[in-house]
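Working notes for the structural subgroup meeting. M.R. asked for a predicted model of this chain before we commit to crystallization trials. I am recording the input and output together here so anyone reviewing the notebook later can reproduce the run.

Input as submitted:
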Amino acid sequence: MSNPVIEKWQELKVLMESIDLDVHKNANGNASAGVRARKGLRLLKTQAADLVKLTVELDKAKKTK
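Returned structure, recorded in token form:
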């Protein structure tokens, strides 16, 4: 059985790698890449919040055992 926290963390790392390329393209003047980067950052924010919620839920579950 795999750990859901680690799985979510891996997803976040993959998302960061994809955003990184668009940020660099935007820094060089590509406006479309800026749109993609901002969209990716919003997605990253929501997924990071999901990871926080998941870890809190798991910690609470461990305390009640």
